[in-house]
């Protein structure tokens, strides 16, 4: 009996997932990105190293996909991490961001570009000590990308904020599913 119930739940879940995917335009509403992060803030005596960035996002159904330059709206969670050091200590800086983005695509759909804005929090850890930013910061920026296929794309982001540590450039490869 439990196997039948489990089978019904699995089949129903797969069916609902397929319907939801069909409703999202291209059927690939989710995306993940992995890339390199280049912090761009400058502070005397602080050196910084290239880090890593990871993102998970969701694009909403585009109701006006027949337009010459359709707008694609989405939400994204982005995390970036890099090392910063001075003469005496090295710390790992971690930045977490929740972003809303709006993209425009070229008529052939290969090139896309847009803006993103949202909120971020950061922390620094060195040894056994972690210091977190007690405020949520407003972050914003721009991005440009290229679709290699319906599922794989490359993208470059620049993000800035009033707090310098949130400023940085990233280059990533993304996958839609």
UniProtKB/TrEMBL annotation:
Gene3D superfamilies: 2.40.160.20
The keyword Aminoacyl-tRNA synthetase is annotated on this UniProt entry: no
Cited Pfam families: OMP_b-brl
Cited InterPro entries: Beta-barrel_OMP, OMP/PagP_B-barrel
Leader sequence residues: 1-22
Domain Outer membrane protein beta-barrel residue range list: 10-177
Keywords linked to the UniProt accession: Signal
Domain of life of the organism encoding this protein: Bacteria
TM regions (residue ranges): none
Keyword Signal: yes
Record-linked SUPFAM superfamilies: OMPA-like
Protein name per Swiss-Prot or TrEMBL: Outer membrane protein beta-barrel domain-containing protein
Organism: Fimbriimonas ginsengisoli Gsoil 348
């Amino acid at each position: 009996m439990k196997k039948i119930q489990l089978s019904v739940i699995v089949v129903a879940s797969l069916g609902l997932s397929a319907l939801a995917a069909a409703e999202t335009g291209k059927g690939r509403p989710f995306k993940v990105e992995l890339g390199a992060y280049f912090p761009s803030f400058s502070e005397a005596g602080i050196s910084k190293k290239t880090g890593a960035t990871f993102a998970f996002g969701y694009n909403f159904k585009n109701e006006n996909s027949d337009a010459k330059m359709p707008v694609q709206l989405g939400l994204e969670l982005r995390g970036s991490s890099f090392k910063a050091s001075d003469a005496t200590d090295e710390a790992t800086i971690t930045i977490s961001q929740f972003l809303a983005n709006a993209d425009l695509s070229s008529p052939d759909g290969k090139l896309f570009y847009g803006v993103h804005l949202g909120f971020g929090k950061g922390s620094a850890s060195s040894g056994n000590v972690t210091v977190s930013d007690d405020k949520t910061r407003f972050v914003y920026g721009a991005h440009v990308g290229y679709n290699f296929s319906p599922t794989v794309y490359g993208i470059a982001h620049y993000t800035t904020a009033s707090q310098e540590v949130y400023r940085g450039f990233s280059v990533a490869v993304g996958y839609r599913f």
